[in-house]
């Protein structure tokens, strides 16, 4: 996924599209977000990655070279801890306001 931002920038510039033109009214993606993605400072969500691929006229698979989109390890750890929490899914405990 590290190459994703580099590919985005290369394809966008190859097509002669400015960041402002690419993002349009910025409802899907802001210019600032695009800049952070292109400089690999940010990993786009799946919906943003799909929007970017659509704007470039390519498939998401092309953008990722078929690599899987991996979630950060910390996310996986937190998800595991949350699911293992005794109150997770306990409707009685969840219904109480503490």
TrEMBL record:
Domain spans labelled HTH cro/C1-type: 8-63
Pfam families: HTH_3
Gene Ontology MF: a single term: DNA binding
InterPro entries: Cro/C1-type_HTH (IPR001387), Lambda_DNA-bd_dom_sf (IPR010982)
Protein name (Swiss-Prot/TrEMBL): Helix-turn-helix domain-containing protein
